[in-house]
Design a protein that fits this description.
By secondary structure, this protein is α/β, with parallel strands linked by helices. Helix content is 39%, strand content 19%. The protein has a ten-stranded mixed beta sheet, with helices on both faces. Helix 8 packs parallel to helix 9 and helix 11 packs across helix 12 (352-365).
Length: 366
């Protein structure tokens, strides 16, 4: 999956900022550390950890959703591994009160995290989890590359007594860096990029499409296909195997990546990475903080472990170790290891530590 060079060439010691966050975050981050330690032992690299406060925990301890100076601390590291943020105790519509998600948005802005990568891969052992037929999801292996710093979420907005508006605005440079990353990613995969837009209606999408065409001229080994977002939403359910790399803007990517995530049947299996223009990227599972099960030791660690595998590949250039971790997760699943969220009726469910131990055992046995 590599689309970026190792963070340090010739130095196989890497510094990771841990942001455990809220809910099950500390449990799943600890699980990922256990797997990373086993991978480092096998493949000959070492990890040094920093830890920071982000989210609801930061609000409780500091009164703000992010500790002061955290961006600078992250920038001094090679990568950031995040658990999850949020919980009902911090939900509020009061604009004067902080929310955990504000810390995450601040992290994205401060680290210039412009591209969110959501890989979606079907696991043969979990075909029963999907609501789609097994023959539809078998062999699915795609990545959605979502623009993360522009569009409706960051444009001018206003609400009056009886109306409201939000502005979707993009610059050519914002579109180009996102699409260029998607093409570089596709070069190491099947060589296909679907650029998803709404160019039949939106002027911002017409800009997006024009830039995508221009970028494609630099990559003669990658095929570019255009698709309207409404059709893409349908095609993800009708024939998801047609997709390799999907490049799209912020809101479209937000919606499509959640839809694609359900192809596997459990968000507990889905990793993600947010790529930074400044060289430091952030890795996190796509599921939330799951406060209802926090502290019970039953959270599924797979998404966080797979996010850590992405970190090994994309930030550290440890592709062999990354692939071994991914294979270990798949082997554990094939051997029947299940947490409660992915166990079928009647199947025994493992806790977080037990599932982690099964992944480590598979990694060490390869």
């Amino acid at each position: 999956m590599s689309a970026a060079p190792a963070a340090r060439l010739g130095d196989r010691s890497y510094t990771v900022m841990l942001l455990p966050g809220d809910g099950v975050g500390p449990e799943i981050v600890a699980a990922a550390q256990t797997v990373l330690a086993a991978a480092g032992e096998r493949f000959g690299f070492s990890l040094v950890y920093e830890e920071g406060l982000l989210g609801g925990r930061a609000i409780d301890e500091l009164g703000a959703p992010m500790e002061h100076g955290l961006i600078e601390r992250c920038q001094a590291c090679d990568a950031v591994l995040l658990g999850a943020v949020g919980g009902p105790q911090w939900d509020t519509t009061d604009p004067l009160r902080p929310r955990p998600e504000q810390g995450l948005l601040g992290m994205r802005k401060g680290l210039e995290l412009y591209a969110n990568l959501r890989p979606v891969k079907s696991f043969a052992a979990l075909t029963h989890n999907s609501t789609l037929r097994p023959e539809v999801i078998a062999g699915v292996d795609l990545v959605i590359v979502r623009e993360l710093t522009g569009g409706l979420y960051f444009g001018a907005r206003e609400r009056t007594a009886d109306a409201a508006y939000d502005t979707m605005i993009y610059t050519e440079s914002e579109v180009e860096r996102l699409v260029d990353y998607a093409f570089r990613l596709a070069q190491g995969r099947r060589g296909l990029v679907h650029s998803v837009d709404k160019a039949n209606v939106l002027e911002s999408s017409r800009l997006w499409r024009a830039v995508a065409v221009r970028v494609a001229e630099r990559y003669t080994d990658v095929e570019l296909r255009h698709m309207y977002v409404d059709n893409a939403a349908m095609q993800l359910l009708r024939d998801p195997r047609q997709f390799d790399v999907v490049a799209t803007e912020n809101m479209f990517g937000d919606i499509l990546s959640d839809e694609a995530g359900m192809l596997t049947g459990s968000i507990g299996m889905l990793p993600s990475a947010s790529v930074g223009a400044g060289g430091v990227s952030l890795y996190e599972p796509i599921h939330g903080s799951a406060p209802d099960i926090a502290g019970h030791g039953i959270a599924n660690p797979c998404a966080t472990v797979l996010s850590a595998a992405m970190m090994l590949d994309l930030s550290f250039g440890e592709a062999e170790a990354a692939h071994a971790v991914e294979a270990a997760v798949e082997t554990a699943l094939q051997d029947g290891a299940r947490t409660a969220d992915i166990a079928a009726a009647g199947e025994p469910a493992l806790g977080t530590e037990e599932m982690t131990a099964r992944i480590v055992a598979a990694l060490e046995a390869e």
